Amino acid sequence: MKKYLQIYHDLLTDIQTKKFKKGDLLPSDQKLVMRYHVSRETVRKAVRLLANEGYIQTIRGKGSLILSTEKLMFPFSSIESYHELVAQNHLHSTNDLVSIRDHVAVPVELLNGAPALTTQLIVRKRVVDEVPVILDYDYINEAIVPEVPATVAQRSLFDYFESTLHLKIDYAIKHIAIEPAEYDDCVYLGINQSVPVLVVRSETHLSDNRVLSYTESRHRADKFSSL
Q1: Per-residue pLDDT tens over the stretch 138-177
Q2: Which residues make Cβ contacts (< 8 Å) with residue 92, sequence separation at least 6?
Q3: d(CA 18, CA 208)
């Protein structure tokens, strides 16, 4: 891992575990330079990542003020909230398997500077009450899970990982954005390009901090509030 990413992840962990609280200041650039034995620019790259994600605000002459401690990390149970919410609202939901491809590189926009991974790509369409609402792209780390059977992909990936493979999933880091619909969104979700898409890009970690998977989940925004 590049040094600035190590610093970023260390600081992010300290923020999300509330070692640093909202309103606190991060350690100064000089203290981080001395702690990690890196250049000031390396430290600034890590700090800029935190600022871009809304965790901190850099104030001239004062330092980096922590704005949020709970923005992007969610316990694993939140990944299951889709299924829970569907059940709570008595909705009928299915997973339609679109495709499975082996030995696929993870797109750069999902890696956020992390090392490249070779994955099995599983594309699924989630249909709720006969309306397609979500298009999921799951990139499963082949070094951890060499192959996911098609029958499993049509059900719950994470139940398979935990119950069958006995992997210990710890947390997911999520990045959320509103973006214009792309060609595949229009095809598989039955929308036109005037409908925006809520995009959730996430990385799921095991308890030993290895990355199990990267996911890009594309929700049609006109139906998102009803799920």
Answers
A1: 999 999 999 999 999 988 898 899 989 999 988 778 887 8
A2: 128, 129, 130
A3: 20
